[in-house]
Amino acid sequence: MSNHRPHHSEPLERSSRSFAAAVVTALMPYAGALGDSGLSANLEIGGRYDSNVAVIDVDRSSGEGDFAALFSAGVAYDQPLGKRTSVKVGYNFGQSLHADFDDFDLQTHRGSIDARFDAGVATLGTSYQYVHARLGGDKFMVLQQVSPYVARSYADGRFYVRAGYEYTDKSFSGRPTRDAEAHAVSGMLFWFLDGVDRYWLFRYRYRDEDAVDPALEYRSHEGSVQYVQRFDVAGQRVTGRLRMGYETRDYRAVTEEIGAKRDDSRLRLQSSLSIPLGERSTVAVTYKYGALNSNLPAVDFDEHVVELTYSAKL
Asked: How far is CA 174 from CA 60, 193, 237, in A?
């Protein structure tokens, strides 16, 4: 049986601000010693064509294609706090601007903290992220996630395994029945065939989401496999990626619009090429295909997406 809870975004936002303030206070004594060596920044600009502009988080699709300009910028600080402990703090800003469907323009502010401890036989860590999103210029969603994890390398670094638990809280502005809490367990396996020049990445996640509206509650199984290879083209080290993901969702209650429980499955395919332009910049072209199958018409469609982006490490 699900546990419904009242709308509580304000207490969550207060707790997140308190958490961030506590982290900053804890790091202040180290600021002088850390210097600038752990600071990094990145910038990305580009464009995208989407054959069906949609916001899947709220089951909303336009049924039409559109072009969008893309922009993102981020900064991160990663430094050890002793021989075995390190902390990484980051912030990222993202914005999409559509040519026609400006109601689908998405702006995100993402803050994250990751603390890691080398326990010898394994790495123990906990990550936290806070996301504030605006859709079409209006407040849209606040997401918070906490994820403790354990990771370890095997066979002289040929395999790397990570397993974790995820607690997620989502609060939607103007859509309180969509507010939800989710518990998930996840795992990933890197299989290095030739170091980072050629490897496989396997992922799996089981998720149990409780929402204010019982019709939006579901359990899901999601898996993906990705192959990455770097190769030389005209003296440049090009990176190619192929990815396939599949997700099934088992909804708990009847959706009034269709008079039945939702039955959703999602197949996603992706391929990309990244071409370096010097030591700190890259051009990437990406193609994505999505086959979203559902008895809810708004999220029953095929989608083709093409992106061209330029990124630079500052």
From this structure: 15, 49, 47
Average pLDDT over residues 254-264: 95
Q: Please tell me the distance from the alpha carbon of residue 218 to that of residue 207, in angstroms, as a whole number.
A: 8
Over residues 187-230, the pLDDT tens digits come to: 999 999 999 999 999 999 999 999 999 999 999 999 999 999 99
The pTM of this model reads 0.85
What distances in angstroms separate CA 207 from CA 167, 268, 303, one per listed residue? 10, 18, 24
Q: If you average pLDDT over residues 111-118, what whole number do you get?
A: 97
Is 4 inside a domain boundary?
A: no
Residue 1 lies in a domain: no
CATH number of the domain that residue 166 is part of: 2.40.160.40
- Across the strands, what pairs with 301? 292
What's the start-to-end Cα distance of the chain, in Å? 50
User: Residue 259 sits in which domain range?
Assistant: 9-313
